[in-house]
Design goal:
Shape: elongated
Oligomer: single chain
Number of domains: 2
CATH topology of the largest domain: Rna Polymerase Sigma Factor, Chain: A
CATH architecture of the largest domain: Orthogonal Bundle
Protein name: RNA polymerase sigma-70 factor, ECF subfamily
Pfam families: Sigma70_r2, Sigma70_r4
Largest sheet: none
Number of strands: 0
Helix content: over 70%
Order of helices and strands: HHHHHHHH
GO molecular function: DNA binding; sigma factor activity
Keywords: DNA-binding, Sigma factor, Transcription, Transcription regulation
Family: Belongs to the sigma-70 factor family. ECF subfamily.
CATH class of the largest domain: Mainly Alpha
CATH superfamily of the largest domain: RNA polymerase sigma factor, region 2, helix turn helix motif
Length: 191
């Protein structure tokens, strides 16, 4: 493929031969012919997608470089060369679009800033509340403590608790409600 030829009017098999020549011998003449034939077509295709002539030109150049680098991956038995070329162009456009749509990393984003350490008075309140809850739990019968532990600390659903304890689901719900009533009363006594 060392003669200066044009691909105009070439069959799909001929175009595939140019890509194979690029892959096997890094044939610049074949690449130039491919570039002359497909460069404008790829640019027009990308212009429809981007609606930006400079972006279409840049993406076309990137596509042609990808064709040069990936020519060894082309398999004429799997499809037409033009479909392979335009698939590369489409994938490059998708990658560029994704990069453009991805927000830039902002280190000052409040979602990324760790929560402030609690103040000393808040830590004391938390410890006192925890101690009061622990003392209130000691006033409950063990069966009710077990139900509260399963429901709120283990985050088990009422149906799971019923299956584990062998109790009807209605009984589980009423015993948890009763345990909360007793806990509320016990906590008010500790205040």
């Amino acid at each position: 493929m060392t003669d200066r030829t044009s691909l105009a009017g070439s069959s799909p098999a001929d175009i595939g031969k140019y890509i194979v020549a690029i892959a096997s011998a890094q044939d610049m003449v074949a690449f130039e012919a491919l570039f002359r034939e497909f460069g404008p077509r790829i640019r027009a295709y990308l212009l429809k997608l981007t609606r930006d002539s400079q972006a279409a030109e840049d993406l076309m150049q990137e596509t042609m470089l990808a064709i040069w680098r990936k020519a060894g991956q082309f398999d004429p038995m799997r499809g037409q060369a033009s479909a392979w070329i335009f698939t590369i162009a489409r994938n490059i456009w998708i990658d560029a679009w994704r990069k453009q749509k991805r927000p830039a990393f902002d280190p000052d984003d409040p979602a990324l800033v760790p929560a402030a350490e609690p103040e000393a008075p808040d830590i004391m309140d938390l410890k006192q509340s925890g101690a009061a809850l622990h003392a209130a739990l000691l006033t409950l019968p063990q069966e009710q403590v077990d139900l509260i532990r399963l429901s709120f600390f283990d985050e088990a659903s009422h149906s799971t608790i019923a299956a584990r304890t062998g109790l009807p689901i209605g009984t589980v719900k009423s015993r948890i409600r009763l345990a909360f009533g007793r806990l509320r009363t016990a906590l008010e006594e500790f205040k």
